[in-house]
């Protein structure tokens, strides 16, 4: 199996795949890579995005077995061991757009086993909100199959309207808490993530498609107000040279960029 140009990463993925198949047994449908690997934009600061498709939602017993398996994978002698980021999704949930959540708020989104990158992270149950349409679109159009049927047979087409609606929905919910608690933006990982992610979201609003972080950052520098060019440039550079904290001035500029992105996105309200 040679899904990436990195032999040590391929070995880790082979180990993960074999363990997943063993744990899930007959419930295993397929395993796929998406994210930066699928967008041909993988670099030393990227995580390893994967999706495992199951024949039905994972039961509690299977969840605990998968959690223990990921704990073992994290102990392997591999520099990629803490960079895995992925979800286990049933076929039915993966195929179609998520329904609008009930009126009791965002926590009513369906929950699926998920693991994030980083030391100490464990498999957990996490909600799949409207932004998950990006994963579905990437998987369908550019997903890398490790084992399983072609992703186009598992995911219905994702329209530009669906992508734009999803971005608008996430923008209404996600940045507001950051503006209310700006201290968190002083953490460099979150700081750079916010700036680059906003670039990607605004790109999707414009084009109705999904692209890589690098393409979106370049587009934002060339298209948005010139004031944000230095901030985006620094955020991109900091992906490779992380610092413990951001300055108060940098936090304030990031908050201003959040406000700008929210205002800018209103031009696309109701867009198809």
Structure commentary:
The structure is a single chain. With 272 residues, the protein is of the alpha+beta class. The protein has 2 domains: 7-156, Beta Polymerase, domain 2; 163-268. The chain has 11 helices and 6 strands. A 6-stranded mixed β-sheet has the order 5-4-3-2-1-6. Strand 2 (48-54), helix 3 (60-74) and strand 3 (84-90) form a beta-alpha-beta unit. Helix 1 (7-24) runs antiparallel to helix 3 (60-74), helix 6 packs antiparallel against helix 8 (188-207) and helix 9 runs antiparallel to helix 10 (229-238). The termini are far apart.
CATH superfamily of the largest domain: Beta Polymerase, domain 2
Helix segment tally:
11
| Shape, principal axes of CA atoms | globular
What is the level 1 CATH name of the largest domain? Alpha Beta
Work out the radius of gyration.
19 Å
Strand order of the largest sheet: 5-4-3-2-1-6
Task: Give a short summary of the structure.
The protein is an alpha+beta fold. The protein has helices at residues 7-24, 35-38, 60-74, 91-95, 132-142, 160-173, 175-180, 188-207, 213-223, 229-238, 248-265; strands at residues 28-33, 48-54, 84-90, 111-115, 124-127, 144-147.
How do the strands and helices of this protein lay out in sequence?
Elements: H1 7-24, E1 28-33, H2 35-38, E2 48-54, H3 60-74, E3 84-90, H4 91-95, E4 111-115, E5 124-127, H5 132-142, E6 144-147, H6 160-173, H7 175-180, H8 188-207, H9 213-223, H10 229-238, H11 248-265
Parallel strand pairs: 2-3
Antiparallel strand pairs: 1-2, 1-6, 3-4, 4-5
């Amino acid at each position: 199996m040679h899904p990436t140009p990195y032999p040590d990463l391929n070995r880790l993925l082979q180990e993960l795949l074999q363990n997943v198949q063993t744990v899930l047994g007959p419930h295993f449908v397929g395993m796929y890579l998406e994210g930066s690997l699928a967008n041909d934009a993988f670099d030393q600061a990227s995580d390893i995005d994967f999706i495992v498709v199951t024949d039905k939602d994972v039961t509690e017993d299977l969840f605990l077995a998968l959690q223990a398996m990921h704990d073992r994978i994290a102990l392997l002698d591999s520099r990629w061991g803490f960079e895995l980021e992925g979800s286990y999704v049933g076929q039915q949930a993966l195929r179609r757009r998520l329904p609008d959540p009930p009126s009791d708020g965002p926590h009513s989104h369906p929950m699926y086993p998920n693991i994030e990158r980083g030391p100490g992270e464990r498999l957990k149950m996490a909600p799949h909100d409207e932004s998950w349409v990006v994963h579905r679109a990437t998987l369908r159009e550019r997903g890398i199959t490790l084992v399983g049927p072609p992703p186009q047979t598992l995911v219905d087409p994702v329209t530009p309207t669906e992508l734009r609606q999803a971005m608008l929905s996430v923008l209404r919910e996600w940045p507001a808490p950051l503006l209310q608690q700006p201290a968190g933006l002083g953490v460099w990982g979150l700081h750079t993530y916010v700036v680059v992610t906003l670039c990607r979201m605004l790109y999707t609003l414009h084009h109705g498609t999904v692209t890589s972080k690098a393409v979106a950052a370049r587009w934002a520098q060339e298209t948005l107000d010139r004031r944000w060019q230095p901030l985006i440039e620094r955020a991109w550079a900091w992906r490779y040279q992380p610092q413990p904290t951001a300055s108060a001035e940098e936090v304030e500029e990031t908050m201003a960029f959040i406000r700008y992105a929210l205002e800018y996105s209103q031009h696309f309200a109701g867009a198809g």
